[in-house]
Amino acid sequence: MDKNPESHSSAFDPDSPGTGDGIFGLPTTPEEAAVVLLPVPWEATVTYGTGAEYGPSAILEASRQVDLFDVETGRPYERGIALLEAGDMGWVHEVQNWSREARSRVNSILEETKGEGAEFPVPDDHPQKETFARVDELSSRVNERLDEVATEWLQKGKLIGLIGGDHSSPLGLLRALGRRYADFGVLQIDAHADLRPAYMGFQWSHASIFHNVLEEIPEVQRLVQVGIRDLGQVEAKRIETDPRIRTFFDAHLQGQLGRGTPWLDICQRIASELPQEVYVSVDIDGLDPALCPNTGTPVPGGLSFAQFTQLLATVVASGRKLIGFDLCEVAPDPTENSDWDGNVGARILYKLIGYVLKSQRD
Fold it and tell me: Against a cut of 0.90, is the pTM above it?
């Protein structure tokens, strides 16, 4: 292969600059790739900062600066990595159009309600009842479309990763995996619990993704949360009472580190809570905000880059198999003066791919 798909006269050089159109500068097609990435420019119900819609494009652009040899996982690129329809986005444009319509409607609701939204279910006499319903309808369309697309590629034997978009984006992929695996767990790296039954009147809110997953995908029999440091009382109660959930709060992790517990020991404890097959869900705000300053809802604290990669390494070393993943809430600098968020996102993505492939091979 050649890193530049327009030039086939020279051999592929993984150390050359990434000039191809594909993710990480690779010319691999989805049909050739072991890992197929789904870009989802969706951010309908974000509740603070915006920009997650542009996460997939920011990561794609920054990915061409990532060296393809990885000291931890080797040469993931050799198995083939492709961003679905990276050139002609096709169905992705449809999702983006739905996102922009939904976001416009959400903004009108928040302006009228002074940012409070509404209770859920939205009362029949609420003046914006139909607007809320339209946002949920568009969200449902995205879930259904991602389910269809993911199912198609899973049936072709591909490993699927999703690039959001806000953290509501992967529900369709998780539905598809639920029909493929009888029993699997989710490793959630996040600042937020995302266990609200609904948020601000929206059923499919990014603050509700794992409530929705646990309610409608019974094959997800374990949710292990890492880095949580922002949650509501209802979510805290759910964590206390739902035996499927195990939460490693950021404050507790930092306390253990402060008392001298090695991070590796903590990672081994986290891994021990997971079943054999694991889906990894990464909200970038689970990391230290210095690594993702423009994400929509940053929270002080979080994992370092090295802590994140060692956690993945430990889960894989434990013999568990990673069956898919998502990376959400990466948002580029709105001033366009820096591509730092995309840069970090691209490197997180390559680590995820590397460890997913390593878990399959080893």
Answer: yes
